[in-house]
Write a structure and sequence with these properties.
Largest interface: A-B, 20 and 25 residues
Number of strands of chain A: 0
Order of helices and strands of chain B: HHHHHHH
Distance between the termini of chain A: 37 Å
Shape of chain B: globular
Largest sheet of chain B: none
Number of domains of chain B: 1
Distance between the termini of chain B: 57 Å
Structural class of chain A: mainly alpha
Oligomer: heterodimer
Number of strands of chain B: 0
Number of domains of chain A: 1
């Protein structure tokens, strides 16, 4: 019963926090451009607005078009349930859950791509094809990343991985961890459709990837798609923050309920730090040509693979 | 000393970046960055030796690396690339992810080659593996590029790998050997540079594929 309560609380928190990192990134970009920018909570307002709106749906759309938003949102939330915001008081976890997380994300992506192609618009198909090309190289990188950390931590489970990282302290600043960090940053940028791979704020059709796939969606369906993407972004930022900024976790783990109360703001702060890093990185880079993105993804893969080899052969 | 471990991994990564480069100018620049990392490595190990035993030869080697590999050789290569009329900038004939994945396999091979020969798996082995991988990738870079400049850069990367192997895994070679290698490399680059100038004058191109016409 207690674990169920924890799980519900965890999911409620994830859903409440998910749109925030996007707002932080927007704010940073706005500051650099000497604009005030929209409020940090603009993404929440956008979602509320979209949920209230009517939908326009192509008469060519089949059931796939209607199912896709629910599958995308549901799979993101289910995956997020397995990645604890607080490593010592998480949601559900079992040995091997990283495979479930990765396949849930793949399921979401599969339906996202189908939803893009279903109404028969050319842009949707183009976006789907690009998304699949990019993810075919990014997914192995993430898989190797989780396996490397999972084997080192003792079990391929996000809860175990994050708890193990918490015990490492400053030992995470080790070359093989830095390789893994480099790889995870690239994967995060790709999976969350950030700038070198995809520009979330563009509506220039020839460069869109994620936006092209959801082009035919409107109203509550679009809101579900965007919310799902935000939850996925929070998932990746959580892993990034809790593995590579594990400071304070070991101390808080032993404090019971106090640790949870103190740990949540700390975890949120770490996630926002990572979001801020992504925002600053976005300011200094330009979007890659679509044909160069596989090169970036290949770099992400080899960095993860080298980190994996290094960890396996020489230990942490 | 952990700094050398970081540098060794950074040099390996810079070699991957080199292989992922498409254009002649950008891989010469990446080679420059890699040489700067090598010079930094020599500086780090050299400072250690200086404070331990008062030996200053690695510091001199670091300075020479900076002068020769970071400044002089890239300059010569860029100049050789800059001469001659309209040139194709891009220099690769397999797609980049494939090249990078091949290099990944070469790195895995370096692990097996070093650890399979009874070297204990410690920090020294890690340095040695990274350096062997850089040497193999330099060789691979030579055969994966069509232009003559790419082949020179590949040769220099191999040399960087050998230098890093001796530096990090064995604390540097005797000073005379290092100096000899520098003279060797410099003269090799001068000869190759001369050949490149000749090639571009005779054929108006640095494309090695065109040399096949010379076969009887």
């Amino acid at each position: 019963m207690r674990t169920l309560m924890e799980l519900v609380l965890h999911l409620a928190l994830v859903l409440a926090l998910a749109p925030l990192p996007g707002g932080v990134i927007r704010k940073i970009k706005a500051f650099v451009q000497k604009r005030q920018g929209p409020s940090l909570f603009q993404e929440y307002r956008d979602l509320r607005k979209l949920f209230r709106k009517d939908m326009v749906i192509s008469d060519r759309a089949s059931w796939v078009f209607f199912a896709a938003p629910f599958v995308v949102f549901g799979s993101s939330v289910a995956a997020a349930a397995l990645v604890p915001l607080l490593p010592w008081a998480g949601g559900a976890e079992f040995p091997g859950d990283v495979f479930l997380v990765i396949s849930l994300l793949a399921l979401g992506r599969f339906f996202l791509a189908l939803g893009g192609m279903d109404p028969g618009s050319t842009f949707g198909g183009m976006g789907s094809s690009r998304e699949m090309t990019i993810s075919a190289l990014l997914e192995p990188a993430f898989l190797v990343f989780t396996l490397a950390l999972g084997l080192q931590a003792g079990a391929p489970s996000f809860g175990v991985i994050l708890r193990h990282a918490a015990t490492l302290g400053t030992a995470v600043w080790h070359p093989s961890f830095l390789l893994l960090l480099f790889s995870l940053i690239l994967v995060t940028l790709g999976e969350t459709a950030r700038i070198p791979v995809d520009d979330p704020s563009t509506h220039l059709e020839l460069t869109m990837v994620h936006e092209a796939m959801v082009l035919e969606y409107s109203g509550p369906f679009l809101a579900l798609m965007e919310y799902g993407a935000a939850v996925k972004q929070l998932l990746f930022l959580t892993v990034l923050a809790q593995v590579f900024l594990p400071f304070g976790n070991a101390a808080l783990a032993g404090m019971g309920i106090g640790g949870v109360v103190l740990g949540l703001p700390l975890a949120a702060a770490k996630v926002l730090v990572m979001a801020a890093v992504a925002g600053v990185a976005e300011v200094f880079t330009v979007k890659l040509r679509i044909f160069s993105v596989p090169n970036l993804a290949a770099m992400a893969f080899i960095a993860a693979f080298l980190g994996f080899l290094n960890l396996m052969v020489f230990g942490g | 000393m952990d700094g050398t471990h970081f540098l060794s991994v950074a040099i390996l990564l810079s070699t991957f970046a080199l292989v992922a480069n498409k254009r002649v100018r950008s891989y010469i620049r990446t080679f420059q960055v890699q040489s700067a990392l090598v010079a930094l490595g020599a500086l780090v190990v050299g400072t250690e030796h200086f404070s331990d035993r008062g030996e200053w030869d690695l510091l001199v080697v670091a300075a020479i690396t900076l002068g020769v590999k970071v400044w002089a050789i890239p300059r010569v290569l860029l100049k050789a690339h800059g001469q001659g009329e309209p040139r194709r900038e891009k220099d690769f004939f397999y797609n980049i992810p494939l090249l990078v994945l091949c290099c990944c396999a070469l790195t895995a091979f370096a692990y097996f080659a070093v650890l399979g020969n009874g070297v204990p798996a410690d920090r020294g082995a890690s340095h040695l593996i990274n350096a062997v991988a850089v040497v193999l990738m330099g060789l691979f870079f030579m055969i994966s590029r069509r232009f003559a400049l790419g082949q020179i850069v590949g040769f220099l990367v191999m040399e960087n790998g050998l230098f890093v192997a001796s530096l990090f895994a064995a604390g540097g070679m005797p000073f005379v050997v290092d100096l000899g290698v520098f003279v060797d490399v410099l003269s090799a680059v001068l000869i190759m540079g001369g050949l490149v100038f000749q090639l571009s004058e005779k054929f108006h191109s640095l494309d090695m594929g065109k040399l096949r016409k010379l076969r009887g």
